[in-house]
Amino acid sequence: MTSVEPTFKSKMTVYVVSCWILAAFGGLMFGYDIGISGGVTAMDDFLIKFFPKVHERKLHAKENNYCKYDDQLLQLFTSSLYLAALVASFGASKACTLFGRKPTILVASIFFMAGAAFSAAAEHRWMLIIGRILFGIGVGFGNEAVPLFLSEVAPVQHRGAVNILFQLFVTIGILIANLVNYGASMLHPYGWRVSLGLAGTPALVLFFGSMVITESPASLVERGRDDAGRTALQKIRGVDDVDAEYVQIKEACEQAKLIKHPFQKLMKRSSMPPLIIGIMMQVFQQFTGINAIMFYAPVLFQTVGFKSNASLLSAVITGTVNVLSTFVSIYAVDKTGRRKLLLQASVQMFICQTAIGAILLVHLKTTGTLDQGLAAVVVVLVCLYVMCFAWSWGPLGWLIPSETFPIETRTAGFAFAVSSNMLFTFLIAQAFLSMLCHMRAFIFFFFSAWILAMGLFVIFLLPETKGVPIDVMTERVWKQHPVWKKFMGDEDEKRSREMA
Questions:
Q1: Which class is domain 14-499?
Q2: Main-chain phi, psi angles of 136, to 5 degrees
Q3: Segment 438-461, tens digit of pLDDT
């Protein structure tokens, strides 16, 4: 379907690898927050201080196994971050365009450190929520700027692997959070403060890292700093002869200057393919049910019968699986391509979710617990599920939108992708415990149905983008796809530019 462009000259240098790793700490920051929330909300000291009614219900869990954590305010503690991130992502888009990726990453780290300080010092619920909002602004800015930065500074032949560093660091952040929660749960009565306060550590690394990394060449050229753009390109490629790649970036930026209003351009017919793909990848990523499991893994394992510390340890196990499996994607994404990974994972996740739902439906009643053997089977199935998500919909949900938008709508389009991710993460985080209460085991069949839809979406609508330079994606991908090429007529493109 697509042809591969010739590879531009580049060398792997210590500096460019350092840039990738330091920027990817934005992912670790995000992952730490995902992992920390569920563990903190399972800590008795935290519940007694802020959610005493939930703690009382937990003590009488035998009354209803599925509903002991069903509390809208408790869910708001987790989900409020994502509403703030949703709004912040559009401000981050403007910041990326006007000031560049590098200062936007700096701002993300500052807001996240402020959120960590506010949350760790919280004495009232409103302080917790303000802390979550500050976290959310940091996440909105970081999740907008970091994947764009990684895609733009990576050589085309390694773009998939480099971009997946973001998701790898997300999984590392989740694992670290689970380990911190496991240790902090034994520090009474302030363990939850330790868990929340340590969120500032990856943000501090990102803060200093943002001063070390270079700005992306595309961002510099886009803002009229041509000489600085060429110098940055030479620095990240490790070679002096970057003329061919520089010319391609320059031409793409010249095209972008014709577009005065990128958000209006994004609504044109010719911009629909990457926009629809970008948004749907985020919707599907959340409706796999992954964040329901990652947010609330300790809660979920308590529901099926593990004691508090055992459930936190089980969450550590799933976090370890998540990290290790992401390396599979780093290795395979630029070799096998995006579509094969997504399709294989859809089959495996569908089987796992359906099996978990069937076990809980038959064996976990309103009261009582699963026997040890079946509880262990559930943990194994969760691990198998997390495993294939980690090499597919997790990293590729961020990679594909970051590489498919042309430069004239790249920051605006990716803002829609990030905000869609945050919106549906919010909906899942806010609704999961209530859905678990009312739907019980059927919640896993609900996610299974979405996974089936995802697989069909990949088969019919998702093109392969492996090995295609970002700035020729329209010609090499969208105009060649049997469905999306109908949106890409030359006359329509010309008209769209004139009207934008």
A1: mainly alpha
A2: -65, -40
A3: 888 888 899 999 999 999 999 999
What confidence tens digit (pLDDT) does each residue in 127-175 have? 998 999 999 999 999 999 999 999 899 988 888 889 889 989 998 998 8
Cα–Cα nearest to 76, from 19, 129, 118, 33: 129
Query: Nearest Cα to 18, choosing from 147, 199, 153?
Result: 153
Give the Cα separation of 126 and 139 in Å (integer).
20
Domain parsing of the chain, residue ranges: 14-499
User: CA-CA distance, 490 to 496, in Å (whole number)?
Assistant: 10
Report if pTM > 0.70: yes
C-alpha span between 266 and 347 (Å, rounded): 33
**What long-range pairs does 247-250 form, CB within 8 A, spacing at least 24?**
248/469, 248/471, 248/472, 249/217, 249/218, 249/221, 249/471, 250/221, 250/226
Torsions phi, psi for 366 (to 5 deg): -60, -35
Integer-rounded Cα radius of gyration of the chain? 22
Ramachandran bin of 392, using left for φ above 0, alpha for ψ from -120 to 50, beta for the remaining angles: alpha
Which residues, in sequence order, are CB contacts of 289 under 8 Å at separation 6+? 353, 428, 443, 444, 447, 450
Distance CA 316, CA 158 (A): 30
